[in-house]
Amino acid sequence: MSAIILQEEIVHYEVLGRGRPIIFLHGWVGSWRYWIPSMQAASMSYRTYALDMWGFGDTAKNTSRYLLSQQLRLLKSFIDEMGIGRVAIVGHGLGAIVALMFAQENPTYVDRVIAVGVPLKMDQINPRMLQSTPQELADWLLGSTPDSEAARKEAPKADQNAIYHSLQHLASAGIAELPQQLSLPCLFVHGQNDPAIAMTDTAILATFPTSFHFIALENTGHFPMLDMPSKFNRLMTDFMALPSGESPRNLELKDEWKRRIR
């Protein structure tokens, strides 16, 4: 286990591979651990990092740090302290929101973003996300694969307040405006059967700039990276291989993606 002291608190992270950097940010359920298959797939060509945000996994629990602004500050401190430089970010749920907000506030730090299961409006979020314990959320949303079981064991480490406060903060965070404020390449991925976060309306997706692209993966839920890891990882590596600044709409689409484009 690797750890770093940031803002006088312990922050847990893991790292694999060599090459251009990618940071993986977990969601409201689990920790860094469910990113292991994706980190392994990317580590053949990239240096991959995954960290536990404030209140999750083995990172410090401190209620004063659970607002989105504090998670953004954590990410910036981590990048600066580790000397990572310009980075790609893959975020899920909470991590996707942090990734998009961070890219908007720190455009020189971020090359591209994959946002998985991201809600742009509060009404996309199932009320159970605010009302359930971390273990209940894990039992509801995770499948039964070996990687899912590892994530399920990590879920109870989360402070429920970290989930609650970040979700409450969304209402005033201006997430819906972010796609119009970002010019870097962004790929939105959503599990078509996600019970926790409803997909963004197609009318809203149609207003996204050409730097954005949306793909819904069939037969996946809240954790598409665990439900169909080979397809998710193939999509991720294809996106990462695009030249810097190129629109994800220029991806050479594989047959399995073609029916999933919105």
Describe the model:
Strand 1 (2-6) and strand 2 form a beta hairpin. Helix 1 (36-42) packs across helix 11 (229-241) and helix 2 (68-82) crosses helix 3 (94-105). The chain is 36% helix and 19% strand. The chain has a single domain, classed as Rossmann fold (3-Layer(aba) Sandwich), CATH 3.40.50. It has an 8-stranded mixed beta sheet with strand order 1-2-4-3-5-6-7-8, with helices on both faces. By secondary structure, it is of the alpha/beta class. Residues 257-262 have low confidence and may be disordered. The chain has helices at 36-42, 68-82, 94-105, 128-131, 134-141, 146-154, 160-169, 178-181, 202-205, 224-227, 229-241, 255-258, and strands at residues 2-6, 9-16, 20-25, 46-51, 87-92, 110-116, 186-191, 212-217. The N and C termini lie far apart (40 Å). The protein has 12 helices and 8 strands. The longest helix has 15 residues, at 68-82.
